[in-house]
């Protein structure tokens, strides 16, 4: 069954606890927590204090997506602050294996993220070590962007690779997700759908979960 991970970047931070409560009530599975440093991506977003506060008010799985340069400098802090899943960009570090092992040393689920312009085949040497792969289906840094169709080929390649090699990492997708693109991603093998603008624009939060899952 596909999992839905609303991106808190699109929520109303003035009522964060209420938003998180609605996410749980909607039937969503994971809270997606985007961290941007203004260097790796042209934007700055939420960080450690928000994560620490969030951990105090929910027991939902928190998926921390580090869109930052030199992620090794911050991995320990985000793991200790309450993340359950932590992912780092393949493009952000020359030592991706080291970063993945650093996450795993905290008994957290470790993921590698790939930008739209990065060939997915470059991740082959790390796939046996990760718990999930996050495919960016837009260029990271801003919400509300349109889905990049060519990223569907990456999902398909990953799905075929894990079947051929007997691996069990999950495939997560992030960017431009709606009821149309979610169906395309699921058809190619996606397991986790991150939705920000599409999810939080609905007054009834149960509706986007049902639509994204195809119910």
From TrEMBL:
EC code: 5.1.3.1
Metal-binding found in the keyword field: yes
Cofactor field: Co(2+); Fe(2+); Mn(2+); Zn(2+)
Annotated a divalent metal cation binding sites: 32, 34, 65, 174
Molecular-function annotations in GO: D-ribulose-phosphate 3-epimerase activity
Keyword match Isomerase: yes
Any Pfam family the entry gives: Ribul_P_3_epim
Entry's family note: Belongs to the ribulose-phosphate 3-epimerase family.
Name the record gives this protein: Ribulose-phosphate 3-epimerase
